[in-house]
Design goal:
With about 230 residues, this protein is of the alpha+beta class. It is built from four helices and 14 strands. The protein is elongated and about 85 Å long.
Length: about 230
């Protein structure tokens, strides 16, 4: 995690804008466009969430939880910008620092039609994501009204490439309609078990596909498996 490097130099959290190619792959832009924070966060929260569909089974006392998908990770932390002179080598004003942060994480990209994704790095911590929320609280001011200190709460959701989204998506969920191409040796009860984990649905699947319950399946035949009701 963040902290002192092996050479004793304090590592600063770095926020770098990224680009996304046509395939959905993400790469960081030039380091010159990165922002090193003035003061490292004292802590951060990394949240991982699994989503379940809740269906109350007939006659059951509770709900039957079925895995639905894994939601994108989120991270949240607080940054402090200080312009009182207590931070060594801090030459930019608090306003300049906040403006730079907003330009990287919040500015709308007209070409991509969405905010720019970013890379967060701090020691061994590496996270690609998009901003969910940014909350600014100014707590100290010059007599002129210019801010001398600001607390910034940020939350990011993990950016996932198209390939990773496909891997995370539960494509075998019984709550989705599936089209399956029959292979040699497949039977309707066997395919129903693969999709629904219950072979007893085969008469209904046969009816939907216009098959006789005992109809022999042909390799290459395409069958529809509807969601469970």
């Amino acid at each position: 995690m963040g902290g002192q490097s092996q050479a004793g130099k304090l590592e600063k959290m770095t926020i770098t804008p990224c680009k996304v190619d046509d395939e959905g792959n993400i790469t960081a832009q030039a380091d010159s466009k990165s922002m090193k924070v003035m003061i490292n966060p004292s802590s951060f929260t990394h949240n991982l969430t699994i989503s379940y569909s809740q269906k109350e089974a007939l006659g059951a006392n509770g709900e039957d939880l079925k895995f639905k998908n894994i939601k994108p990770d989120t991270v949240s932390f607080e940054l402090v910008f200080d312009g009182t002179g207590v931070v060594p080598n801090a030459t930019d004003t608090v306003k300049d620092q906040v403006d730079q942060l907003k330009k990287i994480v919040y500015q709308y990209d007209g070409k991509e039609h969405q905010p720019t994704p970013v890379r967060l790095t701090w020691g061994s911590f590496l996270f690609f994501g998009r901003l969910d929320s940014l909350n600014l609280e100014y707590t100290l001011f010059k007599p002129s009204g210019d801010p001398l200190r600001a607390k910034t709460k940020l939350s990011f959701s993990k950016y996932m490439s198209k390939e990773e989204q496909a891997l995370r998506k539960n494509n075998s969920s019984p709550d989705l309609t599936h089209t399956i191409v029959v292979k040699a040796g497949d039977t309707l009860p066997l395919l129903c078990y693969k999709v629904y984990k219950d072979s007893s649905y085969y008469p209904e699947v046969a009816r939907i596909n216009g098959l006789n319950n005992l109809h022999t399946l042909q390799p290459g035949q395409r069958l529809q498996f509807p969601p469970l009701r």
